[in-house]
Amino acid sequence: MERVDPAAVMAPPAQQTRSLSEPIAFVVMVLALVIAPYFFYPMFVMQALCFALFACAFNLLIGYGGLLSFGHALYFGWASYIAAHLAKVGTISFPIWYGSPKWHWATIPLPPLSPELAILGGTLAGGMLGLIAGTLAIRRQGIYFAMITLALAQMMYFFALQAPFTGGEDGIQGVPRGKILGVIDLADPTNLYVTVLVIFLVGFLLIYRIIHSPFGEVLKAIRENEARAISLGYKTDRYKLMAFVLSATLAGLAGSTKAIVLQIASLTDVNWPMSGEVVLMALVGGLGTVFGPVAGAFIVIAMQNYLAQIGQWVTVIQGTIFVLCVLLFRRGVVGELANLLRIRL
Amino acid sequence: MFEIFGIPSTALFGQLLIGLINGSFYALLSLGLAVIFGMLNIINFTHGAQYMLGAFAAFLLLQHTGLNYWAALIVAPILVGAVGVLIERAFLQWLYKLDHLYGLLLTFGLALIIEGVARNYYGSAGLAYTIPEALQGGQNLGFMFLPNYRAWVIAASLVVCLGTWFVIERTRLGANLRAATENPTLVRAFGINVPRMIMLTYGFGVALAAFAGVMAAPIYNVSPQMGSELIIVVFAVVVIGGMGSIMGAIVTGFGLGVVEGLTKVFFPEASNTVIFVIMAIVLLVRPAGLFGRRA
Question: B275 exposed, middle or buried (CB, 10 Å; 0-12, 13-18, 19+)?
């Protein structure tokens, strides 16, 4: 039995000791992102922003719910496919069964959709997949939860490999960027950058709000001690499922945006190394920190872009970082920094 | 030759055989995972990479030292198991007091390192490893053709699996092991060196993976990524069976291999995914797994 320190129980909850460190860090981050395209290749920054949102969504689950999903590529990759398909082709076909021996294909003839609708469609798809996978995965805890999410993601990887609309090994290439609401032309680099930045910031602030809401507090309570949260009357399974669906939806938003920005959806986005990569981003930046996943995503994507010429060694370096982080820097870059400065980040 | 459910018997039994072969590997690997998880409370993500290392060790032993298949069957697991012991001493032993998830993350990192290095030197294409002479050819059983090597793989893995079960469930060593799983502090108080036992258990689990790798070398090509996809299926097998029971891991492994083989006959499109679908169904019906105990 753990002994409970009475002082810890009496101490005011964390959110009442509101510090300025997070708002200040947020302003610094926004300023840095506004001037970033003048110093770095804008395409790199936009790619990193998509992955930063993905990592933040993943971190919502592990950092605040204590749930390690090892299959987050599922929501990111499938949302990416759906968004790319909606933007490029539009037509939706799905099999239905009338009771006759054969399946029939029902087709909804849609024109190629505008980017905002494509992204919305991809995001919703991410959320739906999250609802299904989450319902199954939360039936087991800890290590099993990780294995189940990984196995479900692998299953959907095989579906992506076989489904006709995904284009198999080629993926969906040449996704048109189009015009938002028929007005804002995303072919223009400035428009595209501002759009991606706005999507990222909206997602980021939403996650920030979720973490600091009463819902987020209950989630942290479940992470610390699920049995006690149950004994206090919380239906922990509902909270965990809600967190899972939110995380998957936001991962879907990241994946859809990526499809429009990079104009491609491919098997790389749904395969298991992608699930590992997002874990690495959150781990490097700092699990359970607000800004950590953003820093982690920029570090990992920069590493991939600038070390691309050394080929397979990138995987080896990523593996080494995993090992070092687990053994020596479990707080991650931002977590260590926050600890050093004694602030919350 | 005759037909069953409109399927020629050779095709049906051929796939059943492939299913049993795959099942042998699922059983050996999930057994190793279960043994390691029991003692170390760590899910060994490196297991797939260690299976691959076993196959590579057999290949390299043949290339550079001329050691044949039979010698490799003994030497490769010992070598890879020794590497496992080093990994336990260097990395894993610092994690036992932490959350389980860190063990998963660390072993995932190790798997990336091992696979990356292998791919860097040997590329993604497979390397061929010939079947040992004594096991070439096959038997015509009338209803199907049974290659000798495949029969050997099934028999050998059955023997190793059951042997492991016997040691853990029926010997004094196994009794100590199970006691240390339940309550390490108490077992230590009885004068048993538990940290050494944990170290050797990890080495043994890894050696099992390497043994499976050597046996797989002549069937599948020896390639750097041979372990990573297999290990994800084995994770699903472990979720279905539950890691509480050694016999459960063996039965689930072979059973799911057979189911997968039969799916290839009757519904080939689903053969890649059938184990994951079964996992989803088991989670809905029996969340603790077929042989699992409710936590």
Answer: buried
What is the percentage of chain B residues whose pLDDT exceeds 90?
Answer: 65
Give domain status of residue A95, yes or no: yes
Rounded distance, CA A22 to CA A28, Å? Answer: 10
Tell me which of B26, B119, B276, B278 to substitute to probe the interface with A (most A C-beta atoms closer than 10 Å).
B276
Range of B146's domain? 26-119+142-223
Q: Contact at 8 Å (CB) between A300 and A281? A: yes
The string over B187-199, giving b where at least 16 C-beta atoms fall within 10 Å of a residue's C-beta and e elsewhere, is beeeeeebeebbb
Q: How many domains does chain B have?
A: 1
Inter-chain CB proximity A139 and B277 less than 8 Å: no
Contacts of B100 in chain A (CB under 8 A): 142-143
Q: Which residues of B touch A223 (CB under 8 A)?
A: none
C-alpha pair distances (Å), A220 with each of A96, A172, A212, A217, A223: 42, 39, 10, 5, 5
Residues of A in contact with B111 (CB under 8 A): 319
Residue B1 pLDDT level (bands cut at 50, 70, 90): low
Instruction: Report phi then psi at A141, rounded to 5.
Output: -110, 170
Question: CB B112 to CB A315 under 8 A?
Answer: yes
Contact A140 B101 (CB under 8 A): no
- pLDDT 10s digits, B240-275: 988 878 888 999 999 999 999 999 888 888 888 999
How many Å apart are CA A140 and CA A131, to the nearest integer? Answer: 15
Does any domain span residue B273? no
Position B79 in a domain: yes
Assess if residue B290 is contained within a domain.
Answer: no
Taking an 8 Å cut-off on Cβ atoms, the answer to whether B91 and A327 are in contact is yes
Structural domain contains residue B39: yes
Structurally, chain A folds into a number of domains equal to 1
Which of B106, B112, B120 lies nearest to residue A326, judging by beta carbons?
A: B106
